[in-house]
């Protein structure tokens, strides 16, 4: 923990900022999803740090110990469940470990790996985010007295969505199976969070073809074209 984090840790939570004093490491490859997390933490009083892959998260964790870690299950260099299991077994242990995913089976996977809780994507509600963290946070870190539940939602920066499209476009230049599977998972999650139904449907269609081991070049070309369209015309946002 650096000196800034040490000073931040001495701040006490309040009714309006119930996560004040916490440092949250968000392990998330999507800039759009991470911007949502940034806004949620900002509204809640928590300080945020970001890692976009498992390797980056491990570099962070060698330097400081966060109060909470929120880990996306689908990461470019491995399963977030593996990092959850590693952190859950570590001594000393991080106070709060949460998994996050847009997949229907994500919660089961995260909890089986040792997570304390789960945040389903898309994550937009300030109150739901605060409650998910406070539910598993040690009682001494809770704000004193009654707390008004915030019902506001956050609205991530559309520029972050375009950054995700640029990232996907770069990855789509590769055609090996593992890379295609990763980018399909990445785009389905990002599109779902952003409410981009057309891109989400294209990613799911390609995923289903891949799962059945059927030729999927038309679906891959369609998804690639949609990504390029969003880069060129800033569509869907």
Q: What topology, given as strand order, has the largest sheet?
A: 2-1-3-6-7
The value of Rg in angstroms is 18 Å
Q: What would you give as the CATH superfamily of the largest domain?
A: Response regulator
Question: Mean pLDDT score, rounded?
Answer: 91
Give the CATH architecture of the largest domain.
3-Layer(aba) Sandwich
Helix/strand structural class: alpha/beta
H and E string: HEHEHEEEHEHEHHHHH
What is the number of domains?
2
Helix content: 40-55%
* The CATH top-level class label of the largest domain: Alpha Beta
- The coarse silhouette is globular
Oligomer: single chain
Q: Report the sheet-strand fraction.
A: 5-15%
Largest sheet: 5 strands, parallel
How widely separated are the two ends? 38 Å
Annotation field: number of helices:
10
Explain what the structure shows.
Helix content is 51%, strand content 12%. It has 237 residues and is α/β, with parallel strands linked by helices. The protein folds into 2 domains: 3-141, Rossmann fold, CATH 3.40.50.2300; 158-233, no CATH class. Strands 2-1-3-6-7 form a 5-stranded parallel beta sheet, with helices on both faces. Strands 4-5 form a two-stranded antiparallel ribbon. Strand 4 (74-75) and strand 5 form a beta hairpin.
